[in-house]
Amino acid sequence: MNSRLLLAGLGAAAALLLAGCNYDVALTEKPTRNLDERLIGRWYGGEDGKEPMIVRQLDRANYVVAFDNDLYRAFHTDYADMALVSVESLQPGSDRGKFVCMSWLLSADGNQLTLRSVSTKVIPEDLKDRAEIQKLIKANLVNPALFNEPMVFLRKQT
């Protein structure tokens, strides 16, 4: 992939994530599994590859994520055989307690994390019912527009 195109995609995806959380409910009522220790650490992404995202363990099933001077709680909400996380804004204001749903993929070597948020064009953000959101996700599994452009983060080597 052309590095310019990748950078543009990363910038657009980061803007979508930072624009706010979309849903009043998480994709699943509770975490579908415990933490994946491979996700914990310091990751870098953004247009210049220098935007830090720090992922830490909150408890057995929840992460706390610091990104772009904001805090989030994230937990696994695997659904329809997809590796998904629900990410809740912890910031004061209108987004507090709102969720964004994201797919995640970790490279085989554990050094690249790819996140893609669910598109509000496919799953409208005015949906209030978890079952409706799940139904639309399941109905759109093969729809390439289900997810926004990927955000790619690289693990900081220590």
Structure, described:
- With 158 residues, this protein is an alpha+beta fold.
- It contains 2 helices and 8 strands.
- The chain has an 8-stranded antiparallel barrel with strand order 1-2-3-4-5-6-7-8.
Short description, anyone?
This protein is 16% helix and 31% strand. It has 158 residues and is of the alpha+beta class. The chain has one domain: Lipocalin.
Average residue pLDDT: 86
Major β-sheet strand ordering? 1-2-3-4-5-6-7-8
Task: Give the end-to-end Cα distance, rounded to a whole number of Å.
Answer: 27 Å
What would you call the structural class?
Answer: alpha+beta
Count of alpha/pi helices = 2
Number of domains: 1
CATH architecture descriptor text: Beta Barrel
Main sheet: strands, sense, barrel: 8 strands, antiparallel, barrel
Rg from Cα: 15 Å
Please write the CATH class name: Mainly Beta
Beta-strand segment tally = 8
Give me the CATH fold name: Lipocalin
**Helix-strand topology string:** HEEEEEEEHE
> Are there runs of 5+ residues with pLDDT below 50, and where?
1-19
Per DSSP, what share of the residues sits in E-state strands of 2 or more residues?
25-35%
Blueprint (SSEs and pairs):
Elements: H1 3-18, E1 41-45, E2 51-57, E3 63-67, E4 70-76, E5 84-89, E6 99-106, E7 112-117, H2 130-139, E8 151-155
Antiparallel strand pairs: 1-2, 1-8, 2-3, 3-4, 4-5, 5-6, 6-7, 7-8
